[in-house]
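Human: If only I could read backbone structure tokens as easily as an amino acid sequence. Underneath my words sits a plain record pairing an amino acid chain with its backbone structure tokens. Take your time, and here it is.
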Amino acid sequence: MTYEIAARIKNKQATVALIGLGYVGLPIALAFAKKIKVIGFDIHVKRVEMMKGHVDPSGELDASEFENSDIIFTAQIDDLKKANFFIVAVPTPIDQFNQPDLKPLLAASSTVGKALKKGDYVVFESTVYPGCTEEDCIPVLEKESGLKFPIDFKVGYSPERINPGDKEHTLSKIIKVVSGCDAHSAEEIAQVYEIVVDAGVYKASCIKVAEAAKIIENTQRDLNIALMNELSMICDKLNINTYEVLEAAGTKWNFLKFSPGLVGGHCIGVDPYYLTYKAKKLGHNPDVILSGRHINDNMGAYIAKKTVQLLIQNDKVISKARVLLMGATFKENVEDIRNSKIVDVINELKSYHLTVDIVDPYASSEEFKHEYGYDLASAIGTGYDAVILGVMHKEYVMLEPSYFNSISGKDAVFIDIKGLFRNRIQNMTYWSL
């Protein structure tokens, strides 16, 4: 049996198109563009112009990674008609009710459908619930293209595993799970990804299995972190340090090393809700998963309340107290502020009418203001009643403990969410998860 589409792509007789050039899509597009012909499509014209100038709007990739790439960046749907193999990597967020928001995915499916031709392939990388590709996306492709699946075109699913800020576990070094609508399409899709994935590919038995695998990867992490967060609350009541407990327990060979913290971003804090949504549709109530989500979603408020309690214990007047919050992005050493759980800390502190200065060496003040309604401070002041080290940016990790004393007033509180400065802070009331 011949594998026509993969062979044509390798020979540059066919073109791969990436739809959605965010922190997932752009690295994939550029990796392929080093070896084959690529069209990079994004609906945001400003972002497209930045990429044409070798600038990654997400701030993840250096300009050098755009060099020697056979890629066309565009926001024009007509340009996609030159492609034969479409990879969809658009965001799949949740709404205010923690329900899946498929609008970006269905819009991307509509866009691809307008460019789809007989013999083309469409592979979805966006995180979805099991069944979404076949039940929600394929009907849109058929409607827009006028073609019939699977006779006229093939579809697959290959979950993304990009980790923002991680320079070690990159696309080429991570095993790629792939799937197709039949055995032949799965092999074609596998051969295409093998062009850029040195670690190899794993062929799932069907699309639903691949979709479920992605959801479970992040749900498992979410539940383990929720367990650590609950443990942290218990340890706090026992007046013992969580990290000391974890270090002791970690001496056992099969102890899983997770730690407490804020769970934000667009994977761990979002993906489980796609699984719980589908489970409820099938008549199953996912108690354990939802319990973990409840714990993690409330950690920001818990940290803020603990800060207020410690300020009161130190005889601070809450209405006059000043707090410095260091870090605004959803994780360390990235620019991305989407679904940052630091905002939950800020909202809770503001409900007590505290003055809060927010700083971050990576986040854009304009974007943070637009997204959450808060300005970032241009500089760190002095005389703070509490300092919250919220995100472990490398710039903060390198600070000496004495620095925090220099920006704080008398009887100040130091909130060290990740326990980075444990046993090193002097002359301040210290607390960590």
About this structure: The mean pLDDT is 95. The longest helix spans residues 207-238. Residues 141 and 334 are 34 Å apart (CA to CA).
